């Protein structure tokens, strides 16, 4: 893959130099240039298709995305050359060439096996969830107006409106939701550490278990976002309860899959049990606060 990316990068340079100043290449030279570009791109795609699915769907997706970026970069460069005035090297052409080089250089950072690919996927999920938790914590600061950054306008009227503030009952419910969001962050942190410490990609079973973990962990961030959105005023307690239940269900699945996989030897079982309890505890509190709404 590294070799095919390197050849593609060189072909992009040749192509852009050929069209950087007059005289333009002859029809024969254009034919040769386009054949070389096509060969390079076909080689990139072929090597991607050679990667066995058994090496892990998470790894395969990362490699596929990197490959697609190289192909798209080359398409963009070709389009730019076709549409550029022939006299000189355009700014767009330089940017497009740089884009192909950058996409091709990515190969050195690609994970080498499914364990590394899953570590990278979990770390990305954790980053997104951390941001969501911080944003919600910031909004929930005592006395703060969650819409304080939105200017008043004539249509909305004065923002003394109940719809823009949390009542005391809302805040009690939301503190349990924050507990669930924090459990999501802790869950991803612990699973990531366990995959780093114990994750292996030596057997089909281990590879499949890692993929299962990555797949279910990918559901955490959208579930956290949905819960966070429903927490803004005016609060509909039933919508909050539904989104909290969805997130709790995803977290329980993550913990269950981790517990039964090779990344969770007996030394890791303590935190799995603790986090399962934390999810149940916060979900029960959400249920209690919303019971009267049913």
UniProtKB/TrEMBL annotation:
The keyword Nucleotidyltransferase does not apply. Pfam families: GCIP_C (PF20936), GCIP_N (PF13324). Keywords: Cell cycle, Cytoplasm, Nucleus. One of its GO terms (cellular component) is cytoplasm. Residues 1-140 form the Cyclin-D1-binding protein 1-like N-terminal domain. Gene3D superfamilies: I/LWEQ domain, Talin, central domain. It is found in: Cytoplasm; Nucleus. Residues 152-256 form the Cyclin-D1-binding protein 1-like C-terminal domain. PANTHER family: CYCLIN D1-BINDING PROTEIN 1, CYCLIN-D1-BINDING PROTEIN 1. Belongs to the CCNDBP1 family. This is CCDB1 protein. It comes from Erpornis zantholeuca.
